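Q: You know discrete backbone vocabularies at least as well as I do. I have my own habits and do not want them to colour yours. No explanation is needed for now; the record alone will do.
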Amino acid sequence: MPGCQLVFDIMGQRSTTSSPVDDIIDVVDSDDEGSTSKKLKAGNEDEVLISDSSDNDDCGRGNNLKHSDSEEKESLQLSFQEAFFLSYGLGSLIVKDKDKLLNLSALWTKFCELTPSGNFPIMYTAYHHFRSKGWIVKNGLKFGTDYVLYKDGPPFYHATYSVIVRALKENLRDVRGNRELTWASLAALNRVNNTAGKGLLILYVIKPNSMTESALSTPLCISQFKLEEVLYKRWVAAENREENNP
């Protein structure tokens, strides 16, 4: 939004002093999406929902929001990763909790607390990595993955890649909480995504041995992770046989 910043007030506790040109955004946990504590706004403000999950088809449109007045209002739903990127990466989102502005460290802590799996630092690092490379990043649940990558966004192109995010220790051992992947499940995911015209990409987020748990409590940890991309492809012997072989 040119000329102003988005204002977001956690859990529906809206400020009464915000400017009419500001947008006020709610942050809700997945268990709170049906809560009646969310209030309607007055004036020309747009309503935006932020939740820890953007898995459903209505993500980004807020079709499940109902207003008691007859005026039609536009709604938007953002994931925690999208919201933090707007604040941290672009500086275009202001977050408030009970009329108190949250700095980036406080916002990071809030999103870590509201993420049930506790893997917000890993998932945001992956999100930030791809956004920094120019990709439009969306939830990949429909294709069995963590993210899907678009060249210019869903209205213009189909997603080019589906991404599985894996957290590893520096000795390449899995971090506790990773989804279980077998060769059979990888082959199934690859077939599903190839049928949809997408490549299957595995992003390894490697945690250095020197990184402590306390380091994960601030966004400074983002630059400490090591990232490695692996493109997973099916290899068929008949199609990849060398020409000089008898």
